[in-house]
Amino acid sequence: MNAQYGNARNRRRSGPLTFGKSVVAGRKATQSGASFKRPDDEDDDAYVSAGGEFDRDTQYITTRITADGRDGYPVEPGRYRLIVARACPWANRAMIVRRLLGLEDVLSIGFCGPTHDKHSWTFDLDPGGVDPVLKIARLQDAYFARIPNYPRGITVPAIVEVPTGKVVTNDFAQMTLDLSTEWEAYHRTGAPQLYPEHLRDEINDVAGRIYVDINDGVYRCGFAGSQRAYDAAYDRLFTALDWLSDRLANQRYLVGETITEADVRLFTTLARFDSVYHGHFKCNRQKLSEMPVLWAYARDLFQTPGFGDTIDFVQIKKHYHVVHADINPTRIVPKGPDLNNWHTPHGREALEGGPFGEGTPPGPAPEGERVPAGHGPA
Asked: Does the annotation count 219 as an active-site position?
């Protein structure tokens, strides 16, 4: 998904994006008004890889927002807007990190709806279907403002410069690291160190395997176009989950004694596992709730302020089951599973460490950013 209509598909690769030129991943495209016309040979509902193994297009707009502004975009309160969709695990990472660090008053947030059409994510949750700050109906408008006829997926999360309406970056992996390091002057008092320098090598190693084998691994299962590709992806996914179970059996968090970037990256996949990946993506050796260590770990994080209060199970289920029509042609959204067990005791507090170390938890989410009533556990 990488939260897009395009990047979750197995598409041909091209070289790096060249700004100012029309670059297309092996195909031609034309711009008409504010719409991106995809080639006639691309099925709007096709997510399964026709070639067998799903291979994510990982080329993003890599411009960075930094304290020194070396890419032309310095950190400034109010200058940028983070655009997300609650359904998307990659966007969910940015939502969690922003909450944990207390950047709500510094970096505003806009929410796309849980589904999108072939052109773009849309702001259909807002009055009139228009983002109240950017004054656009489609996220693609911000992409085209920066790169006319942008040829890749219109993805979330994306950070948009408010005065110009131009997307600055959609590089979701670097984005959260920069929120931790480059935006430090604006962190709340008591904010956790999610990417402490002395643990970065270990965080990078652990998060690297999590990304390849688990975050993206569920997609390789779900979008596999052959039995052989699916079997290989399935085995790789559950081998990695077993590795994590062993790692977390006697330690509360993935790296060190407090939450870090690695925990954020794993949590967003675990939070979607039983609701979506187990059935929809055929990741069905076990449910998360049948893996004792990972289930307790996931509940521990879910009950930590900044994590579970960003999870909207209604939007998550609607996105996957409606958008991936080649996997679920009826677009029926399942009623289950029961979500109330997310609040049951987890027992992980008996292990050494605590979520915020010497820091403090974030306060309640701002009213306009809270998950709607009925969209999470009772």
From this structure: yes
